[in-house]
User: Fold Xanthine phosphoribosyltransferase from Weissella kandleri.
Amino acid sequence: MQLLEQRIQKNGKVIGEDVLKVDTFLNHQVDPQLMQAIGQEFAHRFADEKVDRVLTVESSGIAPAVFTALALNVPLVFARKKKSLTLTDDNYQADVYSFTKQETNHIIVDKRFIQPGERILLIDDFLANGQAVQGMLDIAKAAGTTVVGAGIVIEKTFQRGRTLLDDQQVRIEALARIKAFENGHVVFEPEA
Ligand code: G4P
Ligand code: NA
Ligand code: NA
Assistant:
């Protein structure tokens, strides 16, 4: 997606070896116009999949996921990372190990908000090691749903996430695919 790649080139900052900081439009400050274009692009790519619901993880997945759900005219549910006061015990949980932070978190979805038989589209801001998407897959499976694919805003193809999902035949649509960081610059995979 050209608009997104241009924005990454303009505003993205490479941090260390393998992290891209995009807090001016995605991870802290959010650009609603760009998020709307992203949501429309995901909706277009998954148009034939009869999606019933969009699933993401708080917090940075929510902005692109909300616009995707709007464009598909379906509900969005985001997995919570912390148990909220009002969450019931009737929920699905999955472990998500963060290689970056070297800690395991739980993600949680109330059973009322994901129904057996539904066709689910997963959305996330980054695909790095794939652990967040794996956690969502685990929950979607436990709930007896079908995952139609994963819409990823920014994929880092040099990390292991894609392989993990390919092994499970999960369709991935990534809008910007980063091949490498070279001397603080972003190198994209050629667009298909
Ligand atoms: P994984 O889900 O692909 O396995 O990701 P990993 O454990 O490597 O990363 C943990 C957190 O860091 C995730 O956010 C993930 O989205 C984010 N992340 C991974 N690579 C990058 C990157 O290059 N740039 C930025 N900005 N973030 C990256 P999270 O902890 O779930 O946080 P939240 O922002 O969604 O609240
Ligand atoms: Na995320
Ligand atoms: Na994040």
